[in-house]
Amino acid sequence: MSDMEGSHLNGAVLAGGTVVTGGTEPRVIHDGAVSFREGRIESVGSAADVVADAAGYDVLDTTGKLVMPGLVNAHTHLYSTLARALVADLEPSSDFVGILEHLWWRLDKALTGEDVRLSAAAGAVDLLRNGTTTIVDHHASQTAVDGSLSQVADALSEIGLRANLCFETSDRHGRDARDAGLEENLRFARETSDDGGCSGAPMLTASVGLHASFTLEDETLDRASEMARGLGVGCHIHVAEDVADVKDSLERSGRRVVERLESHGILGPRTIAAHCIHVDGREVEILRDTGTIVVHNPESNMNNAVGCTDVGALLDEGVLVGLGTDGFSPSMFDEMKVANLVHRDRAGDPRVGHDYAGRLCLDGNGEITERLFGERLGELRPEAAADIVVLDYDPPTPVAGENFVGHVIFGLTGWMVEAVIVDGRQVVRNREVLTLDARNVMASARERARELWSRM
Q1: Fewer CB within 10 Å: N-end or C-end of the chain?
Q2: Could you give phi then psi for residue 389, rounded to 5 degrees?
Q3: What is the pLDDT of residue 421?
Q4: Which range among 2-6, 317-321, 339-343 shows the weakest confidence by mean pLDDT?
Q5: pLDDT tens across 195-222, in order?
Q6: Using CA atoms, how far apart are residues 43 and 305, in angstroms rounded to an integer?
Q7: How far apart are CA 275 and CA 439, in angstroms?
Q8: Which residues contact 101 (CB under 8 A, 6 or more apart)?
Q9: Distance between CA atoms of 295 and 311, rounded to whole angstroms?
Q10: Is residue 1 over pLDDT 90?
Q11: Within 13 Å and on the Cβ side, how many CA atoms surround 221?
């Protein structure tokens, strides 16, 4: 494929590959093509027809490749990038609260502004190379708060990743830190309110970030809820990830977590409730009735030994459920595989969960972007944003609409991603990032990580 780096103005066609459209009415088009110009898809169909209608466009040969929509990661933490394989003298943790206290809360207190920028840049490189073009990020750097979301945003804008960002407000470090977190959410949301990509779909949007019920006072929840309403955005919060969150909420308010959050106006159609592992039937009904988004993160949940979200119960009640990595992995392909396996294993029934990967990642995440970005991402159709990935996949069995999710679960991997286009701009070609010096970013991140670990 030729290089379109930095260019949105000249039309281009990806022609000859197997095109998987995604969306509510997915199609598989063999010897297919996708044309796009100025960040918008113009046509999807047979290569002969699309190329004929795109006179003067650059034709990029994708014969033998799989062409599909860019993936969406609906809950992640770029700030955790520099903690990968961390080596530090940390106390072992026997439960989830211990993991937070001994690792993550020490990490986010040690981060500097430069650490924030580098962790975002290095994390974005990994995400793009694994076919993710849009993320919903939940940021924390409790002693480097002011301007931290702009540090993240600048790194993502340079590399070309689409994102919804927020700051993890918490009362765990006192009133001043709480106030700074709320102010950072407010500042960034105002700053990004008029953002748009070349295609008109925003490259950056905002939410109001909150950590979790057990680190938030009533006053903080009320202020965050009022702020979100005033800004016209939702909140992004961890919900009932561990039983400790439930116990605290009952002791604090006499209500379970979802009930407490509802009483303070946190829930709603643009709010993301990440995890929702330890919720009961009444809480599921509240999530449904408020239209709140739930994001499932199976790899992280298994790693922290906190349990598994009852995705089936949520879907049966009509709750919108998406899929995220929670910072555990840069690969949504891996997350989809685990989402399939963990629910079968949990149920002891191989009939369970066979469609979760598609329903959560390919369908649910698309609907989530419609709420957070103002239009549905993650599908190839005329007038959609041109967020596209090309994979080097030579399957031993046919690819068709009815079995594509089977290929996702049993065949596709992030390392097959060969090219990535975001907003009509090619940002990855032959697995090389075109928009910045990825090798230098990773080398700088490694150096920075050692300094960070020593401060922890």
Answers
A1: C
A2: -125, 150
A3: 97
A4: 2-6
A5: 666 777 899 999 999 999 999 999 999 9
A6: 46
A7: 34
A8: 93
A9: 10
A10: no
A11: 21
Q: Among 239, 347, 375, 367, which Cα is nearest to 297's? A: 239
Q: What dotted CATH number matches 12-70+379-433?
A: 2.30.40.10
Q: How far apart are CA 314 and CA 240, in angstroms?
A: 14
Amino acid code (one letter) for 331: S
The span from the CA of 254 to the CA of 172, in Å, is 21
Which residue, chain included where needed, has tokens 């599908």? 379
Nearest-CA neighbor of 1 among 435, 440, 432? 432
Sketch the domain layout of the chain as residue ranges. Answer: 12-70+379-433, 72-373
- Residues contacting 322, CB < 8 A, separation 6+: 72, 74, 75, 293, 294, 295, 296, 360, 361, 364, 365, 367, 368
- Chain Cα centroid distance, residue 167: 15
Q: Which two tokens stand for residue 113?
A: 């502004």
Q: 72-373 architecture in CATH? A: Alpha-Beta Barrel (3.20)
Q: CB of 315 within 8 A of CB of 379?
A: no
Helix or strand holding residue 245 (H, E) = helix 243-253
Length of the chain: 456
User: What number of helices (H) and strands (E) belong to the chain?
Assistant: 17, 18
The DSSP code sequence of 156-170 is HHHHT-EEEE-B-B-
Which amino acid does the sequence have at 15? A
141-187: per-residue pLDDT in tens? 999 999 999 999 999 999 999 999 999 999 999 999 999 999 999 99
Joined tokens for residue 318 = 């009509």
Token pair listed for 128? 């793009």
pLDDT of residue 9: 47
pLDDT reported for residue 354:
80
165 close to 152: Cβ distance less than 8 angstroms = yes
